[in-house]
Design goal:
Elements lengths: L1 H26 L3 E10 L8 H7 L4 E7 L2 E5 L3 E6 L8 E2 L39 E2 L11 E2 L9 E5 L4 E6 L7 E7 L9 H16 L15 E4 L1 E6 L2 E7 L16 E4 L3 E6 L6 E6 L22 E2 L9 E2 L5 E5 L18 E7 L18 E6 L3 E6 L9 E7 L1
Parallel strand pairs: 1-4, 3-10, 6-8, 11-15, 14-23, 19-21
Antiparallel strand pairs: 1-2, 2-13, 4-8, 5-7, 9-10, 12-13, 15-21, 16-20, 16-22, 17-20, 18-19, 22-23
Bound molecules: copper (II) ion (CU).
Length: about 400
Amino acid sequence: MNALRSSLSSYKFRRMMLLAAFLVPQLALGQWQAKAGAQFPDCLAGGDADAKLAAGCQARQVMAFVPNEIWIHQNDSIIWTHASDEGHTVTFLNQPQPANLGDAYPAAQTRVSGGVGCSAFAPNTATSLDNSAYDPSGGSGLQCLNSGTLGTYGTTYTVSFPAKGNFKFTCLIHASMNGIVHVLDPSATLPYSQQAYNNQATGQIVNTTWDVVPLGLFVNGGNPRVYTVGKVVATGGGWQYGSMFRFVDAQGNVITKASPLQVHLGQTVEFANIDPAEPHTITFGCPTDDPACPVGQVASTSGARAFVNVNDNGPQPSGTAGDGARYVVMNGPFHPADEGDRSAGDKSAINAGLLIPQAQDRTGLAQVSPSLNRFRVTFNTLGQYRFICELHDEIGMIGWVNVIP
Ligand SMILES: [Cu+2]
């Protein structure tokens, strides 16, 4: 009897505690954690790009918000941590739907290429980068919110959500990187805990970078080939993608200085960007984004860079093939393994320009040039050649070609 009474009172007590526990979260403002970008292996290997190539650091880039679908309560906030050495933005564009039923529709903002597209961004300073509020109606927050480029590893950006609704967000640098925040009434039960989101993030990082090199798909039809690879993954929150910031051969092996692509004198190498989302360049010699280069400087912010072709002097052909791929002959008058060597003057650069994935029909996105994402180089001089992707060489996207007899 005593035992029953005590168990009853304990039941009442637990019910009260449960009620109290249920009430408290309504008063406290929830704060959630997510990542903007990630990388694997997540290491630095010092500041030298060649050392990063050798160590494999930062090779697999997760171009994704992880997780990219989050349920929160009204007035909660989300802290995005930049967890990569590739730059990203956290951007809520003007929404094409009203914030509340019956509200007027705000003008949907057209997304333009690069890091532009949101005029009402929070000032990107140490003190005001955080504490941005997003409200598509404009009533209690900004209608368009942009972190600006999160370039430094570990930088955070915090957004609070005073309005209920489903709000899509994106990275202005990477078109296929997006997500959604569901802002529910404070009384609603949320489906996931922070721990569950952390687990989802880990799973999504694995999913975007696993099998990113599609082994067995490459058919080496005669000529040596160099590939850049990646893959797009669909989730409930939108798209995520992973890219290999390395050059691989037809067997899927990463090309390094210790394990270069072997080419015979006179052979043509085809460089193919088969990454479905990420652009790259094939740049021999002086990179065009280096102000010290004697020729071919193109503003690095311009997006599309010039095809620099000053090395194929003389009667050798260069230009655009019937399929649209650009080609060039490498006669190697410059120091082929040292992009810093300027002794050959203006005969020091061969650059594919941006090899861009095929244009997709996506509303609001600038369409890319129709040029093919292929580049062919014929090697007519023996030696070892170092090439880079100008966009990603800082994190180890460097390749080597050995031309042998
Ligand atoms: Cu690249």
